[in-house]
Amino acid sequence: MDKSQIWRSWWAAVGAAVAVSLGAGGAWVTHAASPPSSLVMIQPARILDTRNPTNLGLAGPFTSAVSQDLQVTGSIPTGTGIAIVVPSGATGVLLNVTPVGPEAGGFISIRPADASRGPTTSNLNFDTAQINPNSVQVEVPTTGADAGKIEITYDAFGRTGPATDVLVDVVGYTVAAGGGPDPAFAALEARVAELELSAPFTAANTDSSPRDVPNSPTVILGTVITAPTDGQITVFSTTTLGEDVAGEEMRCSITTGSTVESRFLQRWESGGPNSGQHASLTGVRTFNVSAGTMAAYRLVCEHAGGAGSTGVLEATVVSAIFTPTR
After folding, report:
1. What letter would DSSP give residue 29?
2. Which residues of the chain have pLDDT under 70?
3. Phi–psi pair at 43, nearest 5 degrees
């Protein structure tokens, strides 16, 4: 081959490349590249079966050359019921696509639902009545009216009228790399955080020093809790008291207020010297709480005796246990 032949061959190759790259109007045809993505493989799930009476995903069959859009992300019908096979925000899907009973040979084109102009490329080709499955990878729009949809077209090589049923199984999807976690994983993380937040927990306060209690309601000790979710708070109290005057009393109750509540009364009466004038006073009370409620749970006591007299409490403990509503 002489030098002129080499040049002619080179220009022929360039011309062929330009012809492929030019649109009908002579302008360069470009498509914005999708962002870098990570692949997630899943157990295959059927999301399209146009055969009667199934009509899963779309009613069929497909007629040449009428395009239909199929939702592939979010909650969609599947062969086993409504499910999220591909999370919202996925940038692409990996599919197995199968024509069933085509009335004429042709091809199936699968594109993003927001693609412009008519389809000019094929993802699989087949003859009349041929079942010819093929693997298809296609970008999925993430914004706009076509978000989460792909466009499917059966074309009988330009003929109108012939029809075919179509099956589509999802075998994987892609999510934007560096664009945050897989939405399904993020939902799982949120659920774990919710369970951790609502796990039972305990708060407690202690005071071992002696405390004089007058003849009026007095807050002895308490603890503050904020309920992370709806649930119950069970409060326990114990205190040691001494009173050597017969007939005099100590009255206490667990409350969120500052008075001794008669409905939840803890009461002890002294028998006088050498007759058991020292004792432990204990109690328990449960409160129903709503998420976000903050309250102080207190032991409030009063001494009942002669004018100006007091009783003594010491070694006081107030503890509270939160348990979520199940």
Report:
1. P
2. 1-36, 178-197, 274-277, 307-308
3. -70, 130
C-alpha span between 268 and 271 (Å, rounded): 10
Residue pair 103/58 in contact (Cβ under 8 Å)? The answer is no
β-pair type (211-213, 278-289)? unpaired
CA angle 304, 308, 310 (to 5 degrees): 55
The one-letter amino acid code at 76 reads I
pLDDT of residue 35: 60
Q: If we measure between CA atoms, which residue out of 317, 325, 283, 326 comes closest to residue 203? A: 317
Residue 301 to residues 182, 221, 261, 291, Cα–Cα distance (Å)? 56, 10, 10, 29
Q: What is the pLDDT of residue 239?
A: 94
Enclosing H/E stretch for 12: helix 3-21
pTM: 0.47
> Residue 13: which H helix or E strand, with range?
helix 3-21
How far CA 117 is from CA of 23, 48, 113, 221, in Å, comes to 11, 24, 11, 76
Q: Count the helix, strand and coil residues of the chain and give each as a percent rounded to the nearest 5.
A: 10, 50, 40
Calpha distance 83→114 (Å, rounded):
24
Distance between CA atoms of 57 and 69, rounded to whole angstroms? 10
pLDDT at residue 21, as a whole number = 32
Instruction: Give the Cα separation of 148 and 183 in Å (integer).
Output: 14
Tell which residue, 265, 220, 268, has the closest CA to residue 245. 268
The predicted structure's pLDDT at residue 292: 84
Pair of tokens at residue 79 = 């062969």
Which H helix or E strand runs over 278? Answer: strand 278-289
Which residue segments constitute the domains of the chain, with CATH numbers given? Answer: 34-186 (2.60.120), 201-324 (2.60.120.760)
What pLDDT score was predicted for residue 248? 85
